[in-house]
Amino acid sequence: MTRRLLLPICALALVAMVTSFVACSGDDTQLHNPLGTSSNLELYFPITANSSQTYEVTSADSTVSTVVRSIGDATMLNNQQAFFWISQTDTMTPDTSWLVRTWNEIRHIENEHAAPERLLTLPLTVGTTWDRFADSVFLSGAVGASSLLAGTSQMTVDAIEHRSLNDGTEFQNCVRISNAGAYGYNYCWFAPHVGLVRWVFGSQDDGETGQQVGELQ
Prior knowledge:
By secondary structure, this protein is α+β, with helices and mostly antiparallel strands. The radius of gyration is 22 Å and the shape is globular. The chain has two domains: 1-32; 40-216, YmcC-like fold, CATH 2.40.360. The protein is built from two helices and twelve strands, in the order ααββββββββββββ. A twelve-stranded antiparallel beta sheet has the order 6-5-4-3-2-1-12-11-10-9-8-7.
């Protein structure tokens, strides 16, 4: 009789141990895998006041220029925190706009007449799609600035991949987003803890070359 009672009890204990192990393993995997978690936005698009990134931009005619994108101080915009975003090239005066981070989006606010442009939207997993311009909130107080992205409104996360730059710098687990453009497809790569590291506009070969190529320096 005792043996008959012990067998079911031991079986239940074994099931509980296996269930606990699987649950812990799943949590551990998620903690070490940034993809698909709520930390994606800060991970792939860090917004730090008084920081800047420099890009080398090559056009189809082989003209090379430099673009510096700087994040300024935080301010309040329509009752939410926003950061000034300044873009400056070799030949143009600085353009100023805003960056806004919500719980699930990074938004670029171009000027007082522009709807927010969704740069990234959770979840950052392959197959996710979103509209860059999905609403028409009109804001005031901005100076005109160029949009970061180009082409059609529908964006797609089409790969999580390794990316090498022309100077030999390599990045792992880059989120690659794409959309259709006037001369082909447009691609942007966002690397963990860095942000935008490369873009190609007007590509006919899966983002290797295009009408314009920008890379982090």
